[in-house]
Design goal:
single chain, 4-stranded antiparallel β-sheet
């Protein structure tokens, strides 16, 4: 994988170049959120949020099969919400599964898959994350 810039702010790279999703964990109640935060949205504690690497695995919580999208975006695709193993919840796209409700199951184990993409209307590569079925 090259050093393509991340497509979103909470997609980071470790010193060795390994990608990860950054979150924040509350020091008061322990809840984990996606991205950086100053205040806990669960218990409202301030100044106790600690940056963490989010879990790489989780379970499918909800999905929709998208048949119409912006020009240049290939459809159909599966838009998902995943409950990560650390308690955080994140939206993404499920890959490597046929967009057919018969092929999808709630609580299906998934894992994060980092890929380089070229967004519609761009000629540059960006690092993005997707979900794939966990083996």
């Amino acid at each position: 994988m090259t050093d393509a810039p991340s497509i979103i702010a909470h997609l980071k790279r470790k010193d060795d170049g390994t990608p990860y999703l950054q979150g924040a964990r509350c020091g008061a109640c322990g809840h984990t959120f996606v991205g950086a935060r100053d205040v806990c949205a669960k218990c409202y504690a301030r100044d106790g949020m600690v940056p963490v690497s989010l879990a790489e695995t989780g379970k499918l919580y909800a999905y929709t099969i998208v048949h119409r999208s912006f020009p240049g975006v290939e459809t159909p695709f599966i838009d998902v919400i995943v409950d990560l193993e650390d308690g955080s919840h994140i939206k993404g796209i499920l890959k490597d599964v046929e967009p057919d409700p018969e092929k999808l199951a709630f609580d299906m184990p998934v894992k994060i898959d980092y890929r380089e993409v070229v967004p519609p209307g761009s000629n540059e590569k960006y690092l993005a994350y997707f979900f794939v079925p966990a083996a």
